[in-house]
């Protein structure tokens, strides 16, 4: 069978940055010393865990499990869509782009010492595509029709469509041993029932110990097979990595200032200015740095659940957007550190600007009768309360939109034609409630002026996640992770099929033939220009749908850390702060005193 590509690396568009025979990525220190215990706190809202399986819907997976799983390829933090051999040492894309074949590195081993085989790779795909995996995981691999074992060291993935992202998706699939979940008698635990059975992966770390669903420690596998691979040189420099989970943001911050862990990624502007201070900062024991990054911002906002009847009119959703006074929040609570989000792809070339291009119109025109005419104009400008604007003017406009949608103020409340009051619940989890309370107070006050009653409810994270999985909420705050090259994850977030799958990423409940068609064009784009046209078209439709009340973003990573830690001189371009720390930082020699 002829191949169009047989290489050490692939790129979705163009060519990989690093040439054959490269020794390491530019953003690592190849001579970084190894050793020490890095202690971290909750990397997200998780406050406890009850499983080691991150691929299923039931329960909460422990933080850091990605340290145990590897894939056929690894991306770099200074490219948007390239993949270099990791478990695989050769990658071959078929001329028709309907399949990709990987040859496995003969040295690759699982943590139990077994070689990684093509049968394990096939087992991993079949499992992650099955109903036992969470809907979001299933969706990510839905366009891969099957994996075919060619021989013990060769595996071919076959695709449903000619999607240039699919070879990277196949290469990035987590691979685990067929023996994970196998009992001593040879019987198998159902994948969605695997809880504290330790994963059998090929990654650099294994679980050393854990306690009460609140702490977990990973230890470098002394038999790890991949230390000298170009994609691994200069990485995984800590002997151990421990996560301690705190009950809320206040406890987490105070624990850092007391010296209980080593690095804090600060997401709260007020904390960064007013609370990340004290004698340990004054003495230089703790350091604050803002690290630039070029990630797309993703979208963070008050997410509106379209499954609720009161939110189905776009004029209602636009009115809710008008009620948020970002300028006051930024001035009074955020110390002017943030910029208002005005796109699902802000801070990237994927953001729609100006009037639609010819390529964008080709995607939008077939759906003109279904789309708001405004989609064919410039993207919406977010409400502003700086003079000559004002919150009062925005609320007057909101009142007009609500009235046009059938909601008028009478008998002390905003009511529809049936006399039912306009009221809804904003769901949050208790770990973040202290941070969001003053923000919600301002937003709720503005909504009350419109006659809308808002109930703010904070619940523990486990219940919060369960309600999100069941789409049992009216409004909540979500940050959709940023992407540099949008693809399959957008189908999970906005595809009509995902809207009916509990546990999927389509929390909003978007069910639009126009969006589905644009998503198809996005995932099947064969050139960068086609990808940009589809992303711009999607951005226009989503922003004019007012599916979220957009919030704000910052273009730096705010990190506070012990002065015993060091990081490479050259920073990556596209990265998450926690992953960057765990993968490339190190302790200065003879200075780590953590247990």
UniProtKB/TrEMBL annotation:
The keyword Glycosyltransferase does not apply. Gene3D superfamilies: Dipeptide-binding Protein, Domain 3, Periplasmic binding protein-like II. InterPro entries: Peptide/Ni-bd (IPR030678), SBP_5 (IPR039424), SBP_5_dom (IPR000914). It comes from the Bacteria. The keyword Signal applies. Residues 85-489 form the Solute-binding protein family domain. Keywords: Signal. This is Extracellular solute-binding protein. It comes from Paraburkholderia denitrificans.
């Amino acid at each position: 069978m002829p191949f169009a590509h047989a290489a050490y690396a692939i790129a979705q568009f163009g060519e990989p940055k690093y040439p054959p025979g490269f020794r390491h990525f530019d953003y690592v220190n190849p001579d970084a010393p190894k050793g020490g215990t890095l202690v971290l706190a909750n990397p997200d809202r998780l406050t406890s865990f009850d499983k080691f399986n991150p691929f299923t819907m039931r329960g909460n997976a422990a933080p850091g499990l990605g340290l145990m799983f590897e894939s056929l390829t690894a991306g770099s933090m200074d490219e948007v869509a390239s993949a270099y051999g990791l478990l695989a040492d050769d990658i071959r894309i078929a001329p028709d782009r309907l399949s990709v074949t990987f040859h496995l590195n003969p040295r690759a081993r699982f943590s139990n010492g077994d070689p990684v085989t093509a049968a394990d790779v096939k087992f991993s795909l079949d499992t992650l595509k099955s109903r036992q995996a969470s809907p979001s995981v299933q969706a990510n691999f839905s366009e891969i029709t099957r994996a075919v074992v060619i021989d013990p060291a060769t595996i071919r993935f076959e695709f449903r469509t000619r999607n240039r992202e699919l070879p990277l998706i196949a290469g990035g699939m987590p691979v685990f041993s067929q023996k994970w979940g196998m009992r001593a008698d040879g019987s198998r635990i159902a994948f969605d029932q695997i809880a504290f059975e330790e994963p059998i992966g090929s990654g650099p770390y294994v679980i050393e110990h854990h306690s009460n669903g609140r702490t977990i420690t990973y230890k470098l596998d002394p038999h790890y097979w991949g230390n000298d691979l170009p994609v691994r040189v200069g990485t995984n420099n800590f002997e151990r990595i421990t996560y301690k989970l705190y009950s809320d943001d206040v406890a987490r911050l105070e624990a850092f200032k007391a010296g209980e862990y080593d690095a804090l990624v600060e997401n709260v502007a007020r904390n960064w200015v007013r609370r990340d201070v004290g004698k340990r900062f004054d003495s230089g024991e703790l350091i604050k740095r803002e690290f630039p990054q070029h990630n797309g911002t993703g979208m963070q906002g008050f997410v509106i659940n379209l499954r609720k009847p009161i939110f189905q009119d776009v004029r209602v959703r636009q009115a809710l957007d008008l009620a948020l006074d970002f300028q006051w929040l930024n001035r009074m609570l955020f110390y002017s550190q943030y910029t208002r989000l005005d796109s699902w792809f802000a801070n990237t070339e994927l953001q729609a600007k100006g009037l639609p291009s010819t390529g964008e119109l080709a995607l939008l025109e077939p759906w003109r009768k279904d789309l708001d005419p405004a989609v064919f104009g410039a993207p919406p400008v977010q409400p502003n309360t700086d003079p000559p604007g004002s919150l009062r003017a925005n609320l007057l406009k909101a009142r007009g939109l609500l009235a046009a949608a059938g909601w008028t103020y009478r008998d002390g409340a905003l009511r529809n034609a049936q006399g039912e009051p306009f009221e809804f619940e904003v769901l949050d989890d208790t770990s973040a409630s202290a941070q969001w309370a003053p923000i919600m107070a301002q937003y709720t006050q503005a909504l009350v002026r419109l006659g809308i009653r808002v109930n703010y409810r904070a619940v523990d994270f486990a219940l919060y996640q369960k309600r999100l999985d069941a789409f049992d909420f009216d409004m909540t705050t979500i940050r959709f992770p940023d992407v540099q090259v949008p693809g399959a994850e957008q189908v999970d977030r906005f595809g009509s099929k995902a809207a009916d799958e509990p546990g999927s990423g389509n929390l909003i409940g978007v069910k639009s033939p126009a969006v589905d068609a644009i998503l198809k064009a996005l995932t099947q784009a064969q050139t960068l220009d086609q990808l940009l046209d589809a992303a711009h078209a999607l951005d226009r439709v989503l922003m004019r749908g007012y599916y979220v009340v957009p919030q704000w973003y910052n273009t730096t990573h705010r990190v506070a850390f012990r002065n015993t830690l060091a990081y490479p001189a050259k920073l990556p371009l596209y990265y998450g702060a926690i992953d960057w720390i765990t993968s490339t930082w190190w302790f200065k020699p003879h200075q780590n005193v953590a247990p």
